[in-house]
């Protein structure tokens, strides 16, 4: 895990310029998934990893520097205020901002403006999938805005919250369930947010779901499932985790990147040092860092010289 995490984080650091916000970040026709989404994911992972990694660990300094880099890209929060005026009822600026707020980066002006919009009926009635709604409620809480919904009621409407037949698991359901757990646990900070019945369900079915994704070489979703395993009570067991991390190690390119799916030899990339396009591996590489940090911070999993102090699990 440590080797995978170090190599993956080094790759992210070396490619941090790809997370920079360009002029298209404020353009009406801009592609949010190529501008704000990567930056928000970088901030979210770095914020979480910094909290579960001891300050004495060199990785802590690296993720802290990346987090500061990401905050600078928003002009210390000023761009969120601009986005509020351009798209007052879009929720993604608040969701990205919440990642920074969780690490102590705040912009009072934006929070005041967002709180004003959040009091409108238009904001409360924005139509969203239940999993996304859960994330918005969490973002409101993190940003000092009274949540516009109750977690138990929203949770019951998600795929995972309904305790579905385990054989109905597929890609979309997998990503939905991982994010439900991330929202309930405040991105790995506390396992107490997961209801006991849901935790028991995950303990039983997470191992076969993880094995299915690993067998299909769905590395991005596999990393998210490993982060879930490190965030909820119970554990898939050392044999399951050892096998999973060994498979991920085999999938990781020497440059440190991990493809979302498949193998690097499947790609016809022009650069032998980094044969995959940034958009095809940045998220899975970030998720590997996230999953490894949460797993190592879990009591009983600390590496030699690691205090084991960090995110409760």
How does this model look, in words?
This protein has 313 residues and is mainly alpha-helical. The chain has a domain at 2-73 and 158-297. The chain has 14 helices and no strands. The model is unreliable at 302-313 (pLDDT under 50).
Task: Kindly report how far apart the N and C termini lie.
Answer: 17 Å
Most strands sheet: none
Count of beta strands = 0
Tell me roughly what share of residues is in helical segments. Answer: 55-70%
SSE succession = HHHHHHHHHHHHHH
Low-pLDDT runs of 5+ residues are: 302-313
Mean of pLDDT = 91
Global Rg: 19 Å
How many DSSP helices?
A: 14
Structural class: mainly alpha
Shape: globular
Proportion in β-strands: under 5%
What secondary-structure arrangement, pairings included, does this model have?
Layout: H1 2-14, H2 36-52, H3 58-73, H4 78-86, H5 92-101, H6 108-118, H7 121-124, H8 130-142, H9 151-155, H10 171-184, H11 196-215, H12 219-229, H13 238-251, H14 282-297
Short description:
It is built from 14 helices and no strands. The chain is mainly alpha-helical and 313 residues long. The protein has a domain at 2-73 and 158-297.
